[in-house]
Amino acid sequence: MSRRSRDVVVVGAGIVGAACAFACARAGLSVTLVDQGGIAGGATAAGMGHIVVMDDSEAQFELTRFSQRLWDELASQLPAKAEFDRPGTIWVASNEEEMATVRARHEYYLKRGVESEVLDARALSEAEPRLRDGLAGGLLVGGDSVIYPPCVVQFLVERVLQQGGEVHFGSAVTSLDSGSVALRDGSRLPAGSVVLATGHEVRRLAPSLPLRPRKGHLLITDRHPGFVRHQLIELDYVKSAHGSEQDSVAFNIQPRRTGQMLLGSSRQFDVEDSAVDRRLVARLVERLTAFLPAISGLSATRIWTGQRAVTPDRLPLIGPLAGKDGVIVAAGHEGLGTTTSLGTAQLVLALITQRPPGLKIEPYLPSRFKEVGDAWRN
Amino acid sequence: MPGEIEISINGRSVRVPGGVSVWAALTRAGIEHARRSVSGEPRGALCGMGICFECRVTINGVAHRRSCQLECAQGMAITTDE
Amino acid sequence: MSEPQHFDVLVIGAGPAGIAAAAAAAGSGARVAMIDALAKPGGQIWRGSTSSPYGRARRWLDRLHRCNVRVYASTQVVDIPEPGMVLAESECGSILMAWSKLILAVGARELFLPFPGWTLPNVVGMGGLQALIKSGLDVRERRIVVAGSGPLLWASAAHALACGADITVIAEQAPGAAVRGFARGLFRHPRQLVDAARLRLELAGVPVRMGTWPVGAHGTARVREVELTDGQRVSTERCDYLACAFGLVGELELPMLAGCAIEADRVRVDEWQETSVAGIFCAGEATGIGGVDKALEEGLIAGYAATGRPDRARSRFARRARGRAFAGALARAFALRKELKALARDDTIVCRCEDIPKGQLQGLSSWREAKLFTRCGMGACQGRVCGSATRVLFGYGPNSARPPAFPARLESLAATNDTRQPSEGSRGAAWK
């Protein structure tokens, strides 16, 4: 392990960290990627791999849109095992109130150059015949795609190594010191910049950051090609994601290229164990069945959990960590880690190289939260 | 075994002894595989006890039924992969 | 909505261990139920056994019949959603059951190791062949090569022969010296000695090769030829079926999900057959592959212990010790030779559900990595076939257990919040 200073040490080899390492290495910086385990741990191994445009806020829209374009560019280079696919997303509206949201969102996207199509009840039924009767319609966003994140991380790390980058796995970072990073195995890595991309665990090294874990559950079915054709999400998902401190479930189903379907989703604040909550899964299955009755007869072969990292305004933390020179945080992406990993990496690279970022960075800067105590009081 | 029953295999009507498994019925009808694997290989029963999932066929429209574990019933419609 | 049915003792698995456990527990007057995936009790080994030489099976099944045990047949346990509960599903619905004591008599499955051509149709297990024949496979005049390891090799070959098959050759991978040593040691286990002698007699005239194992199966639509080697020469046998497996491994998925400690691929139990989880017992093949005698004695001990009768349990300790000694002798005699780990080539499929060849697993250092980066073990069988194989091939450790213990219909998973009762489920007296 070389002891010369590298330009960047990226802490955390999940999709955000790998994307940052990849962006820096590609830009000619010397990079070392470290992780307490191997690659693709944490939320990256557990998530859905959905690349989706989201518009809860202008800043969220900008970042997801910016990132999606980067994914579209990268897609042709991804190996087959990355399972890049473009099923599109249909946001499903259950009633007229939600259809109003659909139309508003369609307008919003139209103005910003995102292709989408309003589906009335009949068009929705034609697009997805297995959805129950009586739904009001939906919004089809054809440009949304899916990937298999662990294999994408493999690809990104291979590229990092090809560009002369290094990896150091199996040892946790114990402290961020001025100009270097100390690891549990005793090594010390001198670095010009450090990127902290350890998801909800970022609080171990940066306790002042306003992040909370938000646990999710997913199930996977056996292979039923064509059962659904698009990723289907209920509009109420947005309310659930917004919300409440209470445990919530929302209809969210993704067809994989294999014909298996990923079924989600659930949200629970501050439940740090990884145990599968059977009652919550039962509620989730009920929710899924309410939208897609035929699904109840299909079999689930696995159920697992993961931890998202959430901030008070649901935008990620991308920017300098207060009180630590040269440390940049890249965490708190909630359910959009895969989507915004590439965009995050470009912002991080811009900060490190002190070039203009491709996107206004102010909404994501950690410094927007002045007092941690107040941050959650909303 | 009890008397014969009539089932259909890939649309063809077949008589089999009552009490045999769907997999046994397939073999008696000269069918050599239940399914095609992900890469297209022909596959049939392996473990005989319901844990390997290699013997899966569609029965009465329901996919992924383990043929070695199910007894044939009068009128059953079985479809294998080509 | 009604409350889930509660049982003082719930037995999972109706093989010899489960039957003995249920019979023992029921004798105390406790409210006992038993769940099994097959349509009738007996497990894999006593499947379809109603006549001699399965006299013992008949006696135990009759004994179960006379007990007050509620049998849920054709029912698959899919989860232990919380301590004291079990979720199971059958063809027509799911059922949630409450228990005070749980006895896991979940048995074993065959160990399959990959070799070129092992995925061809008509390459089946040895116990697999037996099960398939019992469920209607017609093997009259079919040429069958039986290859692999352990007593099941002989039992399976004899059964197929009795059903009209032409057994071309029996190939045992263990060296002849080990098998002969095992046979000599059977004087300590008279019942097994009688079984072995009977099998030998039934198989007189069938060529037997010790220290011989398969290296390839060939054919297009199905297997037509098998290559066997003794390490020096390779011979080719034409066949219609190849029955091949390399011993048994415990079905540890449910015990692991229940939180039971596992050591050396066995559920760890104390002298009362109680696992590391209070109130959960384990008996039979899951505590170590040992056959019927061990399973029966452990089942009895678990059933007595679970219903607070340690003296009766203790009265079986000596017989259990003999059963465990037999298990030890089995493991030593039929240990797998190292050549079996090297049969698969880079292009040989290891994960059959997802078609992952051995070459793709190169450089991956754990079961977790294999699953995450190649989808090996992520298919329908939940890694039962490839997980056990890669454990032998690469030393991959077993992973932490996740629900469901068996693929479960979504409607069954929704039932955790619901307490439907099954539309079937028979009292002990109802099945034939």
Question: What would you say about this model in short?
Answer:
The complex is a heterotrimer of chains A (378), B (82) and C (432). Chain B is mainly beta.
Structure notes:
- The complex is a heterotrimer of chains A (378), B (82) and C (432).
- Chain A is α/β, with parallel strands linked by helices and 378 residues long.
- Helix content of chain A is 31%, strand content 27%.
- Chain A has 11 helices and 18 strands.
- In chain A, strands 1, 2, 8, 9, 10, 11, 17 and 18 form an 8-stranded mixed beta sheet that branches.
- In chain A, helix 1 packs parallel to helix 10 and helix 3 packs across helix 10.
- Chain A is globular and about 65 Å long.
- Chain B has a single domain, classed as 2Fe-2S iron-sulphur cluster binding domain, sarcosine oxidase, alpha subunit, N-terminal domain (Ubiquitin-like (UB roll)), CATH 3.10.20.
- In chain B, strand 5 and strand 6 form a beta hairpin.
- The longest helix of chain B has 7 residues.
- Chain B is globular, with a radius of gyration of 12 Å.
- The termini of chain B are far apart.
- In chain C, strands 1, 2, 3, 4, 5, 6 and 19 form a 7-stranded mixed beta sheet that branches. A 5-stranded parallel beta sheet of chain C has the order 8-15-9-10-11. In chain C, strands 12-13-14 form a 3-stranded antiparallel beta sheet, with no helix packed on it.
- In chain C, strand 5 and strand 6 form a beta hairpin.
- In chain C, helix 1 runs parallel beside helix 8.
- The chains are: A alpha/beta (378), B mainly beta (82), C alpha/beta (432).
- Chains in contact: A-B, A-C, B-C.
- The interface between B and C is large, with 35 and 36 residues.
- Strand 16 of chain A pairs antiparallel with strand 22 of chain C, so a sheet runs across the interface.
